[in-house]
């Protein structure tokens, strides 16, 4: 049996994935770059924050800042912070629904944030009180790139399950984490470590070929010199 345009049935799923890459994601529009992308970045921020969000400061730069109001970018970002998907019918009402739920937020429009024309940053505050800053770019077609987390440079596209480890820059910490992954026979797709100063705080990001279970995450968090562990699901 054959699928679309004479494609063998067994290759139909691959074909549809390519079509969706060209056409963009299933979403509440109007723009994959100004609506779906910012929503995904905010959703990633929510996951990495890991605790209930009390308030958010959203800075939209470049084209996001210049045309974001018309494209519904603030609504999309707040929807992502609420944990909604890009095709959730509540997205257009995200601002009012967020306010009614108690989430405080501020939206700032900036001429430019960085080198990418669709760049944005999100500052989150929890009630413990925990804070986090995420900076990222919407690449078009619903694709995104995380550029920094709490001031640590990263380059994450949300393609793989990703382990984020806040740690001290000490010998053996990386080996301890990768040793636990090896015990589970888990394969690393990409890995990077960023630090601000030698011997001080560092952040390790590990993109995996496999999902990460709660027990593994807990064991990583129990390692000496590891301060906090977060997981980001594929976006």
Compact description:
With 235 residues, this protein is α+β, with helices and mostly antiparallel strands. It has helices spanning 12-23, 32-49, 62-71, 73-81, 94-101, 173-183, 214-221; strands spanning 55-61, 104-110, 119-125, 131-140, 143-149, 152-156, 162-168, 188-195, 201-208, 226-232. The strands form two sheets. The chain has a six-stranded mixed β-sheet with strand order 2-1-3-4-5-6. Strands 8-9-7-10 form a four-stranded antiparallel β-sheet, sandwiched between helices.
Describe the protein's architecture and organization:
- This protein is α+β, with helices and mostly antiparallel strands.
- The chain folds into two domains: 29-150, 60s Ribosomal Protein L30, Chain: A, CATH 3.30.1330; 162-232, 2-Layer Sandwich (Alpha-Beta Plaits), CATH 3.30.70.
- It has helices spanning 12-23, 32-49, 62-71, 73-81, 94-101, 173-183, 214-221; strands spanning 55-61, 104-110, 119-125, 131-140, 143-149, 152-156, 162-168, 188-195, 201-208, 226-232.
- The protein has a six-stranded mixed sheet with strand order 2-1-3-4-5-6. Strands 8-9-7-10 form a four-stranded antiparallel sheet, sandwiched between helices.
- A hairpin with a 5-residue loop joins strand 8 (188-195) and strand 9 (201-208).
- It is elongated and about 50 Å long.
- The two termini are 32 Å apart.
- Residues 1-7 have low confidence and may be disordered.
